[in-house]
Amino acid sequence: MVKKAVNAIFVGGIVLLLLAGLARTALFPKEVNAYENRYAEKISPLTLKGWLDGSFQDSVDKALADQVQLAQVYKRAYNFTSSRYLKAAADPLLPLCRGRYVNYVDTLLFDGYIAYPPRVLADMTERLAAKADNYNEYFSAHPQLDFYVYYIEKDTDINFETGEKIPACQYLFDRLDLPRDRLGKFAVDSFDQFSGWFYRTDHHWNLDGSYLAYTRLLDLLGVEDAPLTPAGEARTLGTFSGSKASGAAAAFEEPFSAYPFDFPDMEVTVNGVPGSYGNQESFFAGTGGEPSYGGFYGWDAGEVTFSTGRADRQNLLILGESYDNAVVRLLASHFDRTYAVDLRYYEAYMGEPFSFSDYVESHGITQVLLIGNIDYYLMDEFRLEG
């Protein structure tokens, strides 16, 4: 009798957990999957087309994996535990492979950094040429705007073993109808540079890389102000596992450090809602929780706007992706109004497709910065439209 009661309680608990997960997924979905450093999946609107082609059912599966209580906790615990044993066995051998790429189960390592393999230019030329054609159309159609293109090199742009560069940036720049002083590149010419400017476990800039990029962007944009300087020494705010730390590399961790800044007062909106972007002040006050790139600097959004009330300054439109999350607030300090738009999310969060021509006219844009790494210039999601 007692055994049946225990079994009933156990089964009932599982059923309640699943029902609670379904209710949360459908009615109160969370916005962010902090473990995987991205927006959480949600159930797509139910349509006849979505039901027939299976996309609605796929969205339910993905949403449940993100939204059900404790799902991410279990996933993280499993990945971390299995990866920890593997890492303990491999750690003594990795120093023997310095200066060489190491295939670490499903992950590529180079001198303690999780690395993406270098790309092959021949595989990218068609898409880069198409993106250049797309940009040139808008450069020509809007001569009243000052356009700037900033290419961020990373581990995919160089072979760390040989030092050979993949000339994707040069291929793109040679096809853009802009003066050379409107084209900028965050160059990575060696592993030593890469390791000084990027995280070990995440594909983004670290504190030094992002600050260096900010100062170089000011030069590119012709801003005469001195850059904001850190308001103190860099502080380590905890440890984190970045976007590259998954699968066999889930146990790889590193310190998360950042510089404090005294930002000028700004009015901020995120996806049309007044508020704040990022949680830098909270982390420095010790109330930010577990650090992550998005949690600290700000998550990807369809649109983030900053207004300093300095009417004598320019209005900047930044069309980018997650790299600019770390520098957008710094850049906004030097402009009247700054608009950061991620074309992947704009329509979903703002309720209408992004029309470049309408946007620059309605917001009084004077300067446009296109900024991203190689994937930004390859992906169709970042084409200009309208």
3D architecture notes:
The chain has helices at residues 2-27, 48-53, 55-67, 71-90, 125-141, 168-173, 191-197, 207-220, 280-284, 293-297, 328-332, 346-350, 356-362, 374-378; strands at 32-33, 38-39, 101-104, 107-110, 113-115, 146-152, 183-186, 235-240, 254-258, 267-270, 273-275, 303-307, 315-319, 337-341, 367-373. With 386 residues, the chain is α/β, with parallel strands linked by helices. The chain has an 8-stranded mixed sheet with strand order 7-6-15-13-14-12-10-11. A 3-stranded antiparallel sheet has the order 3-4-5, with no helix packed on it. The N and C termini lie far apart (70 Å).
Oligomer: single chain
Structural class by SSE content: alpha/beta
The largest pleated sheet is described as: 8 strands, mixed
Mean of pLDDT? 87
Query: Structurally, how many domains make up the residues?
Result: 2
Overall geometric form: globular
Q: Widest sheet: strand order?
A: 7-6-15-13-14-12-10-11
The number of strands is: 15
Return Rg in Å.
23 Å
* Helix amount: 25-40%
Percent strand: 15-25%
Task: Note poorly predicted spans.
Answer: none
What is the CA–CA distance across the termini? 70 Å
